[in-house]
Design a protein that fits this description.
Helices cover 31% and strands 20% of the residues. With 532 residues, it is α+β, with helices and mostly antiparallel strands. The longest helix is centred in the first third of the chain and has 14 residues. The radius of gyration is 23 Å and the shape is globular. 48% of the residues are buried.
Length: 532
C-alpha cells in the first residue's frame, strides 16, 4: 500500500521538475492516479523526467538510432516515464486514458521513423520508456524463454548461452534491438531460413490493453495474440513480456566474410547470389551488403563492394560441399571459414570485430547499427534482377556519398509458413528483401538530397520488385508510404497497410476495431479502427 506521505512526496518533487503543458493540475492528477493504481510505489527521481531535469536529454537520446528525430524542430515528450514494474505501465495507461493524455512507447529506440518517441500529430504527449524492464527467464527444460520487452536481442542471446550451448532464439542480427518492438514487426535474423521469424516462435505474451488490463494469451484471445505477432508496434497495447520457443542449434557453426568488387566480377557474382540464396540449404544464411568504397588508398575513384556474410548451422566440411555444388562463383575456401559457437556467431553477424568477448552483448552496443543520420526504404524481390538492372543500381550508388544496399535471403522455412499465419505476409515466392539506406554526417547541408536519393533508388527499382502491392517490411517503417492524419480513414491507411501486411491488413483493422475502438493506441502508421 502506498503511504500518503509517499504520494505527497511524489507530487511535490514532480511538480518542482516541470508542469504538464495543459496545467499543473492535470499533471498532479496524473501523478496521483499512477501512484494509486500501481502495486509498488513509484520512486520519482529515478522514473520520471521532464525537460527541466538534467537527465532528460540523455535518457531521451541514449537509445535512439535515428538521430534525425532528435533535431530541435522535432516535438519532444513533455516528460519521460521509465517504469520499474509491470503495474507501473498498467497504471500509466489507465491514467493517460482517464485524463486524455497522448503517449508513445519505446523499448529499444530503433524505429526508423522515430515513431516510438516522437509525434507529428498528437501533441503534447509523454513517453513510456521500457528500459528498466529487462528480466529474462530461461527454461531449458521446456525450451522457452520469457523476456521483458525492454531487454535487447544481445541480452537474450547471452542469457540463453549461459544455460545451454545448443539453444538459441531466431531473432535479429542487430544485438541492441529492444525485444518489444522487434517482435511486433516480425523480427528476422540469421536463422530465418531454418526457423522462421521470432514472431513465428512466440508462444505467449503479456500485454496492457486499451482498458488497462494485463492479459496473457488465454485472456486476450487468439485474434489479439495473432495481431501482435507481426502487426507492428503501437496499435493494440503495450507488450510487457514475450514468451519465445527456443530452437536447437549445433555446438559448432561456421561463419565467413567474402568481399567482391565490381572489378572482381561483382555484378555476375551478385546475379548468381540472387538465383541461389533462397534455394540453397536452409542451414545456410548468406547476407549480401553492398557499399561504395575507394578503389585504392590514394585513389579518388570509387567502386561498389559486396560483402557476403555467411552463417552456417554446421561445420566447415559440409559448408564447402554445399557451396561448391550451389554457389561456386563465390570461390569460398577453407581459409575464409571460421568455426565457432552459435553465441559467437551472434557477435559475428552483428559485425563486432573478431575476438570481441560475448559480454559485449550485455552492453546495449551494436556494431551493425550505430546512431546515425539516415533514411531507409525496403522492398521485396520475387524475380532475379537482370545484370543490366544491377548495373543501373551500382551507377546510382556511385552518385551517393555513403549508401548501403543490403539484401536478406528468404526461402526455406519462410516459404513453408502461410502468409496469414501471423500478420507478417512476406513468405512463399519471396527471393530476398532489400534495405537501401543513405547515411550522412551532422552538419551536412545536403540532408534533403540524401533523403531524395533513397526515393530515386526506390523509383528506379520499381520494375524489378514485388507488385500489387509493392511490399515493404513494417519494422523498416517508411512514412513516404503514407501516414495517418488527425482524421484517420481506412482507405488512406490502406496505402501503407497493404504494403506491410497485404490482405492481413483487413483482419488487423477488424481486431483493432474490437479491442481499441476509440483508437487510444495510435501513431502515424498505427492500425486504424473502422469506427473512425
Amino acid at each position: 500500500m502506498v503511504s500518503k506521505f509517499s504520494i505527497f512526496l511524489f507530487l511535490t518533487v514532480l511538480l518542482q521538475l516541470g508542469s504538464w503543458a495543459k496545467s499543473a493540475s492535470t499533471l498532479e492528477n496524473f501523478i496521483q492516479c499512477v501512484s494509486i493504481n500501481s502495486e509498488l510505489s513509484v520512486p520519482v527521481t529515478t522514473t520520471l523526467f521532464t525537460p527541466n531535469n538534467s537527465s532528460y536529454s540523455s535518457i531521451l537520446q541514449s537509445p535512439v538510432f535515428s538521430l534525425r528525430f532528435l533535431e530541435p524542430s522535432v516535438p519532444k515528450p513533455e516528460f519521460i516515464f521509465t517504469p520499474l514494474h509491470d503495474s507501473h505501465v498498467q497504471a500509466a495507461v489507465i491514467c493517460a486514458k482517464q485524463f486524455g493524455l497522448h503517449l508513445r512507447v519505446r523499448s529499444g529506440g530503433h524505429d526508423f521513423e522515430g515513431l516510438s518517441f516522437r509525434s507529428e500529430t498528437q501533441t503534447p504527449f509523454f513517453l513510456i520508456d521500457l528500459v528498466n524492464l529487462r528480466l529474462i527467464n530461461v527454461n531449458i527444460k521446456d525450451e522457452t524463454v520469457w523476456v521483458q520487452t525492454g531487454a535487447t536481442n544481445g541480452e537474450v542471446y547471452y542469457k540463453i548461452s549461459q544455460k545451454s550451448k545448443v539453444h538459441a532464439v531466431p531473432m535479429g542480427t542487430c544485438t541492441s534491438l529492444g525485444i518489444g518492438g522487434h517482435i511486433t514487426g516480425g523480427a528476422y535474423g540469421s536463422m530465418l531460413r531454418k526457423h522462421g521469424l521470432a514472431a513465428d516462435n512466440a508462444v505467449d505474451a503479456l500485454i496492457v490493453d486499451a482498458q488497462g488490463r494485463i492479459l496473457d494469451r488465454a485472456a486476450m484471445g487468439e485474434d489479439l495474440f495473432w495481431a501482435i505477432r507481426g502487426g507492428g508496434g503501437g496499435s493494440f497495447g503495450i507488450i510487457l513480456w514475450w514468451k519465445i520457443k527456443l530452437v536447437r542449434v549445433p555446438e559448432i557453426v561456421t561463419t565467413f566474410n567474402v568481399v567482391k568488387t565490381l572489378e572482381q566480377g561483382g555484378t555476375k557474382i551478385f546475379y548468381k547470389w540472387q538465383q541461389v540464396a533462397d534455394n540453397i540449404d536452409e542451414d545456410l544464411f548468406i547476407r549480401a551488403v553492398n557499399r561504395v568504397v575507394a578503389l585504392g588508398t590514394n585513389s579518388t575513384d570509387r567502386t561498389v563492394m559486396t560483402i557476403y556474410n555467411g552463417v552456417f548451422l554446421g561445420g566447415t566440411d559440409r559448408l564447402l560441399k554445399i557451396m561448391q555444388a550451389s554457389f561456386p562463383d563465390l570461390n569460398l575456401t577453407r581459409k575464409d571459414c571460421t568455426e565457432m559457437s552459435w553465441i559467437e556467431s551472434a557477435n559475428f553477424i552483428g559485425l563486432f570485430p573478431a575476438g570481441t568477448p560475448i559480454e559485449i552483448l550485455l552492453q546495449w552496443k551494436s556494431a551493425a547499427t550505430q546512431p546515425a543520420l539516415f533514411k531507409s526504404k525496403s522492398d521485396y524481390v520475387k524475380q532475379v534482377i537482370p545484370e543490366t538492372g544491377l548495373e543501373g543500381l551500382w551507377k546510382l550508388m556511385l552518385e551517393e556519398d555513403a549508401p548501403t544496399v543490403m539484401t536478406i535471403p528468404y526461402g526455406g522455412m519462410m516459404s513453408r509458413i502461410s502468409e496469414s499465419a501471423i500478420p507478417f505476409p512476406h513468405r512463399k515466392g519471396i527471393k530476398f528483401m532489400i534495405l537501401y539506406q543513405s547515411n550522412w554526417q551532422e552538419g551536412d547541408k545536403k540532408a534533403t538530397e540524401h533523403i531524395n536519393w533513397t526515393r530515386k533508388v526506390y523509383n528506379y527499382l520499381t520494375p524489378y520488385v514485388s507488385k500489387n502491392p509493392r511490399e515493404a517490411y513494417v519494422n523498416y517503417r517508411d512514412l513516404d508510404l503514407g501516414r495517418n492524419r488527425d482524421k484517420i480513414s481506412f482507405r488512406e491507411a490502406s496505402a501503407w497497410g497493404q504494403r506491410y501486411f497485404k490482405s492481413n491488413f483487413e483482419r488487423l483493422v477488424r481486431i483493432k476495431t474490437k479491442v481499441d475502438p476509440h483508437n487510444f493506441f495510435k501513431h502515424e502508421q498505427s492500425i486504424p479502427p473502422l469506427t473512425l
